[in-house]
Design goal:
With 578 residues, this protein is of the alpha+beta class. The chain is built from 21 helices and 19 strands. α2 packs antiparallel against α3 and α16 packs across α21. The longest helix has 36 residues. Bound molecules: 6-diazenyl-5-OXO-L-norleucine.
């Protein structure tokens, strides 16, 4: 009896042990499945749209559904963002667009960056003591450059699109006229910036209720003045913005408040078609924005330096990898401070900066175990001169086109000043010039003569819309907002995919690091381990955890499938496939 009991107990124990093993095996299997799939990118085979606002994504996806191409969808998205995301979507700012056509085997860049007005001059933001006056360069009517967005989008559509401007603007007009439901992010943004925006009557009327209270999540937000402006442009074409009623409203706003933009400046604004920067990384072709952006030059320069190291073996976000990235970044940002500006005004040694040989010479100066203090790093001497809140979105279509575009009014809500009667905000892009050599701009970037203020010049940018091609096929479409962090954010998504084999959603979400030479610190996001931080500190780096960096809306195309990764750093971002 006792023996029976013992047996029964033994078999029960065995059963329990088997059960535990089974559960454990199931858990391991589940972990493997989760591990195998990692994060889910959105998938499509006929098109993909990734923007930072779901209403813009939807407008653009409708265009693709009706057979439109990626350029049609991009212009539609840009106008929709100008309505639904006024902190960065705009018609009062400027930007860059890269367009890749597999059929033509061509990548072109449209430069619709703002320009300094003709009356602008080098010392315009210096006070009596010769110090840079940040208030004037960031939050006054003088901080605005001549806007390029409307002309740039219209040019893209006319040259590379298939639908009319009216068709591309229709969803935006509807969203402005009928309104849309306020999201928590929309409401929070306007609450956070109320001091800046409410000092101007025009902005207060636009973004706050008549009794001064806030738009709350769930409220309907209607923009009648903006709808009227968009309707005028849609009916009369892009020149309306530059010579018609809209231009008159903008110039009247300038005249009332000491701004510099004249009707002549508006009339003279022209976007430009430029050759993108072209480099390579581990066999992939990298196309990114040329001057007046510094973005493409330094993305390629940093990749060239890092290509000399077995980054995949060193591992994703390991101390060694981050150390090498930071050292490469420092050297590139030091060069940026000296050489980069508007190529229509200054000569830039672009060939040298983006050459493998120059990268190899910079690697020689780099200690693999120890940080080089930024104060000992000076801009290098590349050889080879040759006659440069924001939002990014990426789109691919079924015809082999890819569009990567970043546009901006600079800070969140730009200068904070809305054009009375026209319903849109003025940019404060003039702050991207170097107001005084050595004096940092709003992103802590130092500049010199190459980026000094001159009439009709484009201010230097960091925006880096990028398209990576694999054997002639569009492979990666990416780019980000984030001021000085744009270059390093874009760089890391490229590395996360090429070096570390992450899928596009994981590549976009992974914690990021940043070094911009000055200040001499590695800025990190949350999610880098304390052990890694400790190792970096031992190597001589100052490490600072700050708020998240960028919002990189990206697409990866592989074996005919388009994978979209919206950046989780933007609550309203959305990827939609066809
Ligand atoms: O062109 C530039 O580099 C800056 N005006 C971009 C500003 C920006 O990304 C703001 N967004 N976070």
């Amino acid at each position: 009896m006792r023996q029976d009991n013992l047996l029964t107990r033994c078999s029960r124990l065995a059963l329990l042990a088997c059960g535990a093993l089974l559960i454990q095996a199931q858990l391991v299997l589940a972990a493997a499945i989760i591990e195998g799939e990692r994060m889910h990118p959105v998938q499509g085979t006929r098109g993909m749209v990734v923007t930072s606002h779901f209403l813009a994504t939807q407008s653009a996806q409708e265009v693709l559904k009706r057979g439109g191409n990626a350029i049609d969808a991009a212009v539609t998205a840009a106008f929709s963002l100008a309505v639904t995301q006024p902190r960065s979507g705009n018609i009062g700012g400027g930007g860059f667009m890269l367009i890749s056509s597999e059929k033509k085997d061509e990548v072109v860049a449209i430069d619709y960056r703002e320009k300094a007005p003709a009356k602008a001059y080098t010392e315009m933001f210096l006070d009596q003591d010769g110090h840079a006056d940040n208030q004037l360069s960031r939050f006054s009517h003088q901080s605005a450059g001549v806007p390029g967005t409307v002309a740039g989008l219209a040019l893209a559509l006319e040259k590379y699109g298939t639908i009319t401007l009216q068709e591309a603007m229709a969803p935006a007009i509807k969203l402005a006229e009928e309104g849309f439901i306020v999201t928590p992010r929309f409401s929070e943004g306007l609450k956070a910036k109320q001091k800046r925006l409410q000092q101007w009557d025009s902005s207060r009327k636009l973004f706050y209720k008549a009794d001064g209270s806030f738009y709350e999540p769930g409220d309907l937000f209607v923009q009648q003045d903006l709808a009227a402006t968009l309707k005028r442009i849609s009916a009369q074409g892009p020149r309306e913005f530059y010579t018609g009623r809209t231009a008159e409203l903008l110039v009247a706003e300038m005249e009332r408040h000491g701004g510099m933009i004249t009707m002549e400046d508006m009339k003279n604004y022209q976007p430009a078609i430029r050759t993108p920067i072209h480099g390579s990384y581990r066999g992939y072709d990298i196309y990114s924005m040329s001057p007046p952006s510094s973005g493409g030059t330094h993305v390629v320069q940093i990749l060239n330096i890092l290509e000399g190291y077995p980054i995949a073996d060193y591992g994703h976000n390991s101390a060694r990898t981050i150390h090498l990235m930071a050292e490469a970044m420092k050297r590139a940002y030091a060069d940026r401070s000296l050489y980069l500006g508007d190529e229509d005004f200054v000569q830039i040694p672009l060939k040298g900066l983006t050459s493998k040989a120059y990268a190899a010479s910079l690697r020689e100066t780099l200690n693999q175990e120890q940080a080089t203090p930024s104060k000992t790093i000076l801009p290098g001497t590349p050889v080879g001169y040759e006659s440069n809140e924001t939002t990014h979105f990426s789109i691919t279509d079924q015809y082999g086109n890819a569009v990567s575009t970043t546009y901006t009014i600079n800070f969140s809500y730009g200068s904070g000043i809305a054009v009375e009667g026209a319903g849109f905000l003025l940019n404060n892009e003039m702050d991207d010039f170097s107001a005084k050599p050595g004096s940092p701009n709003g992103y802590g970037l130092i500049g010199g003569k190459a980026n000094k203020i001159e009439p009709n010049k484009r201010m230097l940018s960091s925006m880096s819309p990028t398209i990576v091609k694999d054997k002639g096929k569009n492979f990666l479409v990416t780019g980000s907002p984030g001021g000085s962090r744009i270059i390093t954010t874009t760089l890391q998504v490229i590395m996360n995919v090429i070096d570390h084999g992450l899928n596009i959603q994981s590549a976009v979400a992974a914690p990021r690091v940043h070094h911009q030479w000055l200040p001499d610190e590695i800025r990190i996001e949350e999610g880098i381990s304390p052990d890694t931080i400790a190792k970096l500190q031992q190597m001589g780096h100052a490490v600072q955890q700050k708020s998240s960096m960028g919002a990189i809306q990206s697409i990866m195309v592989k074996d005919g499938v388009m994978y979209g990764g919206a950046d989780p750093r933007r609550s309203t971002g959305q990827a939609m496939g066809l």
